[in-house]
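agent> step 3/5: call structure_predict on target 'Flagellar motor switch protein FliM' (Jeotgalibacillus soli).
agent> reason: downstream docking stage needs a structural representation; sequence fetched in step 2, passing through unchanged.
tool.input:
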Amino acid sequence: MAGDILSQNEIDALLSAISTGEMSADEIRKEEQEKKVKVYDFKRALRFSKDQIRSLTRIHENFARLLTTFFSAQLRTFVQITVASADQIPYEEFIRSVPKMTILNVYEVPPLDGNILMEINPNIAYAMMDRVLGGKGTSVNKVENLTEIETKIMTNMFERAFDNLREAWASIADIDPILTEFEVNPQFLQVISPNETVVVISFNTMIGETSGMINICIPHVVLEPIMPNLSVKYWMQANKKEAKPEELVQLEKRVKKAELTIAAELGTVPMSIEDFLLLEIGDVLELNQRIDKPVTLRVGDIPKFTAQPGQVGKKLGVQIIDELKGGEEDDE
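tool.output (status=ok):
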């Protein structure tokens, strides 16, 4: 009750109830004390704050975009992957929610400890494989009878797809995902203890006309070393990171070595497309620049100097006379 803000009508009704005897102050205090007691389930220990879950959601929204781009290029069909939810639950509860026969990939993410689990709905997995083999992307769920060739195709595809996690996690950790195990029955897969808290990120996935879910299960032991990196404070500090003096010196050296295209513009002549198409070898064009006037020296496409044309030995050259200033050129 202390955390609620009452409207004026509610305050008036409460005062009226106390004054008429319908409710006493003791009852209000008793009710407030009762609300302070909350049931806590030790099997569902909450180890991640809402702030950290939001950070993980943002990171995997980027991962979803990377997966969409990767699978669109590989499968050459319509692909849409979006984050549906991000929750922390016991590992046992996640395994119970997974179908008895599905596609399960276990990844190591060195230098972090533990494994990350990726579960792909069989409908989605078979639609992908059908496209890889040149089909229309239809799905036939026969996951319990996977051949060695089908297993190899899926393994290669999901191994390369999960490489995108390296880029998505770049802001919080430098990881190197490695596919270590491929399984179809979750009962044979015991990655961590049943009561261990995990974060499950679910993705809504569309492959052509086939839809399904992709779930990524991240145990607490994997995220524990980088938990501080999931806070808003860390993200704000990362955004405000300033370059070190030695980095600025190195950058300046590299900029000085950059090659630029410099061209002396002797003059221009306005011409219609029709006249341009009628030009022939030997035609003479009259430029709008007098021979006794300095030429414009361009750096890239930007006029920077005026110069006097001449000859250096047997080669043509120009001598810089003055610097051009004005407009955006001052900032270059």
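agent> step 4/5: record observation. The mean pLDDT is 81.
agent> proceeding.
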